[in-house]
Amino acid sequence: MPKVRRSKKSPPEGWELIEPTLEELEQKMREAETEPHEGKRKVEALWPIFKIHHQKSRYIYDLFYRRKAISRELYEYCLRENIADKNLIAKWKKQGYENLCCLRCIQTRDTNFGTNCICRVPKGKLEEGRIVECIHCGCRGCSG
Q1: pTM over the 0.85 mark
Q2: Half-sphere exposure of 101 (CA within 13 A, CB side)
């Protein structure tokens, strides 16, 4: 099985603890990229990729900020090597964005009326029984 992409610089201490999980997520990413997309809308083919990208970033975020299981050096190494998305993690640290699914959902330029994505609307504000899916990443509600 191929390794997670890294620079020539050796990883910091503790890398061997998180490497198996990251390799597993990288393998899932490769499968999602090569998965056939016949019969799907153009945007639906990208949803699994967004989901796995979110999982990798959330894994690193939880290890560092919630469980405090990895060192700052290893955390910064993961950000520097683009294993985790530093911009998404920066948003997770802000109030109201703790469960944000992707950065495209808060960009107002991607919507018709210059607002956030529909998945950012709280479930209590929507009609009863209405299932909402984000067109960007397939999220069903990340506002809480």
Answers
A1: yes
A2: 25
